């Protein structure tokens, strides 16, 4: 039968270890009295087995023989016998409507009894059904051979399906920032596109007049949309790289790696539990570095949740002491008191009777025969176990009663007592108590009650001052208190009450309220028997962790169910509270019955305003403020809509402790902070139980602790750790590092894309605003892929300070908490930096290399690829500059970036079908000396700018991290040690109390090695209990101080916790497993190896691994005893532990000084070299058309101006003029022609070429028509133009002749031979009819024999990178002498008058760089001078007014940084 075929009313048989397919009510089971056990791990993550039972009447009916006897005399019931009994069963199950609650169920079983009558089915009797009689889908039957039951819910109506919901999607704060930045970037991209579009529209008419761009004189394009819209989209697509879409995918790579390092950290691995840290939400790893508020549970989170009965109050006397000894230490004293007198013995027995009988504990055995207690809370289990140790041994339970074995005294021996359970009034959070009604072996009917002291004392028959005083004393010691009482009732009163109780149990509506009312009637006029004090030990390192988190500026809110006084004392022992704090208390008293007393909204508002004033006064006096608030007060605040005024008070406090709060109130407080504070702070909730799940899911970051309350909190959390002390390492080390890494990663990603986009934006100004990219399309698209690995390595491995420094100086955490590393200021700074770097590259490209005249080096493809290569070098330089530590992985990532780029070029430039224009461009590029000059010049100038900026920030606006590194590097860290290393007297006392030396607060944890060292290095004075702080001046009923032992000053509040999940039993074994409850970390001091030496700035570092070194956060180093191998122990490699050797790339004034000197020297040498090479070049120019202008870098004597215009009708003009050679010129002499401006890089111009036509291949007519506009593919006579396109129809056809010397116009040196070899005429050349061949249109530059294989044609077909054309005309191989007269004949056929362009002929010699580069030489020399000036300025500042290392020059400008503020912990 499939699960889908199951319907309501079916009876299912489930065998052991099988999953339940639906929600069903058990009818019978193989267990005694119908008891069965289920595992709910799949449902709520709890590992404890839950106890369920069948209805007693049905179990009895199905599992008896024919004579009414039990079929299981010595064996469990047989399944076949029980199934056979179904034929006689006539029953109806009434169930409530489907709900989500897995801990509650209301139903009724109507069982027909007697013989059926013709008109009916006999008499029916109702039996109530509760959660104990409901087996849930998804659970598994355990320790039970079989069970069968009737299905009440299936499919989507089951509890499991009702509770199935999508896990709340948490978006990290940085992701919100990135999303907002993306919107800003999108707007910037649109604005840049609009600017370019406006410039295009403004210049469109002038470009339409350019005959070579628009031969027909019309600017009509093929774009379907209007030009102003179409070109906006063109530019928007061109600038698409401004938005780094790949950033999201790359962030996930960093998140995955950061999560791996968190999970692998040995410093957060607990060997006792074999439990490493766990990451469930990788996108929140960097969120850990921005936490402002920590919401923490207390029980099991700050404490160990190891409950032990330590002290009891019986007959006006206290027994037991709080000590390091396990268990109850007052057994002998209690036994002696029992023997003193009959009254004392009876009082003690009555007290122990309540402990042994008033509970819901079950006795079970595991597969090894070990006896265990299954308890609903650890408190209850501890009490039953303590009662056993004191002589009242709970042995077994049946549906009718329970058995207790007791030894009243030595003479009487052991006695077995049988109690009949008549009713159970279960605990609820509203009642704060539970009771059982039993018939004792003597026949008396007893009501045995235990509960919170405030509700128990209200129901006492007489006052008991000694009990109240003892409770106050217990609370002061941090114990969880409980009051025990009883009442004797007669049979008549019980019968009357039991009738009401049964009616309430059978009710289908408001059953809980009716049961509570019935219990309230019975639980009155109680005889108070005594009180208990249970200790919940603090976890190791809690106090140290809290102090350091507070030192980091993180506000801690402790949300607990404990009473106010208990939570207060735990607060002091954990250093959540300090004696110097102003502690305010908001406590609205409870009304009768445990309800909340009514309060006026205005009165409460006025109280909150008064508390805010008190807080402001304390803060103005330099004192910290803490707030303690009760759950009843929070309920009033919420109901009266006073969340805002309450939050105003709470945000003024360093610490908030909420007592007696429910799970929903915990979530409400988290939500209040998230929604009520602007800007929204990052909140973190940490807890270990199911009741912590709401606040864990509500906070931006949820941390679960693998504690004793199951794994539901862990399963719902984003991160999981084994102990609270690991939180300091999770936040201060991993969180801070991950935040800084991700900020660098994000800023760099935006920066590099901004640099690229700005270059593309600048390029539109020299490409006619036509939408031409600065680089080849495929090269351009490789940008993010090539630069992917280095910044990923930074985002994964960068480490500005080591782990010890991060924990030692918690103030370093404030950068993330305040969002200082990624905000609008940082984004603006990033954009300005991108602007500067892009201008550097663009200016070098255009000013320095504007005169480039080497062979074919200035064409669009070769020079564009050179610029892109410089860009790649500049980007990789930048990632090195922003990276704080460089290890071999980072070096390999940078090397892989270069390798990937050059591999891409090699492959791409060899694959002609991808881009024939890029063929062999890489070879052409690297053979040009100017390429290597740019490789050095571009990063060097960037280094100069970045170094100068870094020095200014270091000298005048240093951050805390830089100052700490300075102090550490100079070995002066002792001057700024944190408070933990040099505690004050009060803190020393508190530390000694934590160490267990002498404490009146019941703290019972051993120190970590650091704390032991602190204690050993102290003054040697004996530790004394620090006095509690004085109370506030106001004596408000809501705000009060701690009441003394007398109990005066307010109503007592119990710290006994029943706020456990109703079906979350605890196991307490009689015979403990050797590894269970191992407290070796608490009971014995543990030692760790001394820490590795602090790495010095600039030195290679490779300290010992964390398992060999002192992990600052106190990772466990105690091996599990008897627990076998640690199967989940993280990888101990240096890589996994982030302990790879590295070189620190810090910024110091010495490094800036030497960097400036070295960079200046490199630029100076390079500038001198270029200048020497430039001076070796001899040249002169002849401008024969256009407005007279002397180009930059040309001397006056080298310029000659003559006029030779094309005729008005386009006819060729022939001109002759004489020029004088200004200086000697040795061959080879290059003859160049220049037309400026001439936009060969105009998009529609440079793309109107069919390259296959140039190589002689057949091209389909459709491709020709798609590429070449009609005026450039067909003559007015209808002949086909070959090759087609604007480039081929606008060839420069002026001729230049030097009468005195020959000019070789077909010299192989004019082109790259690989380009020339690829050009070829088609097979039918020149016989194809109706074709206008190139030699026919331009007979002066080619002839019929050569066709397209003319050197000048080949040179012309590769468009220029710049907005001008300077190509090689030919070579002169004869020398020219100074003063020599040359006669130049120019035949001007190329019209430029309408273009406003200039035409020149240039005679120049060649050198090692190819030609003259005067501007570049002087720019390099000027840059070197700037570097030297910067070095001199740095030296003068350090010699005349040096800043003390580790101290800011102007604290006010540095955010108030002082030396003493570094190490506050």
Low-confidence runs (pLDDT<50, min 5 residues)? Answer: 66-75, 115-120, 590-597, 972-1124
Count of separate DSSP helical elements = 45
Strand percentage: 15-25%
Number of beta-strand segments: 43
Helix content: 25-40%
Mean pLDDT: 81
Strand order of the largest sheet: 10-29-28-27-11-23-26-25-24
Write up this protein:
By secondary structure, the chain is an alpha+beta fold. Helix content is 37%, strand content 17%. It is built from 45 helices and 43 strands. The strands form ten sheets. A nine-stranded mixed β-sheet has the order 10-29-28-27-11-23-26-25-24, sandwiched between helices. The longest helix has 38 residues, at 726-763. It is elongated and about 140 Å long.
What's the helix and strand layout?
Blueprint: E1 11-15, E2 23-29, E3 35-39, H1 41-44, E4 49-53, H2 56-62, H3 79-84, E5 91-95, E6 107-113, E7 123-129, E8 140-142, E9 146-153, H4 159-162, H5 173-208, H6 227-238, H7 246-264, E10 278-279, E11 291-296, E12 303-314, E13 317-319, H8 331-340, H9 342-357, E14 362-365, E15 371-375, H10 378-389, E16 392-397, E17 401-407, E18 414-425, E19 433-439, E20 445-451, H11 453-458, H12 465-476, E21 480-489, H13 491-506, H14 511-522, E22 527-538, H15 542-551, E23 555-559, H16 564-573, E24 582-586, H17 601-620, E25 625-630, H18 631-639, H19 643-650, E26 655-659, H20 663-676, E27 682-687, H21 693-698, E28 701-705, H22 712-716, E29 719-721, H23 726-763, H24 777-781, H25 783-786, H26 788-797, H27 803-808, H28 814-817, H29 824-848, H30 860-882, E30 885-887, H31 888-908, H32 921-926, H33 929-956, H34 960-969, H35 985-994, H36 1009-1016, E31 1066-1069, H37 1080-1083, E32 1100-1101, E33 1142-1144, H38 1149-1175, E34 1179-1185, E35 1199-1201, E36 1213-1220, E37 1229-1236, H39 1243-1246, H40 1251-1254, H41 1261-1267, E38 1280-1281, E39 1295-1298, ...
Parallel strand pairs: 11-23, 11-27, 23-26, 24-25, 25-26, 27-28, 28-29, 34-35, 38-40
Antiparallel strand pairs: 1-9, 2-9, 3-4, 3-8, 5-6, 6-7, 10-29, 12-13, 12-22, 14-15, 15-31, 16-17, 17-18, 18-19, 19-20, 20-21, 21-22, 30-33, 32-33, 34-43, 36-42, 37-41, 37-43, 39-42
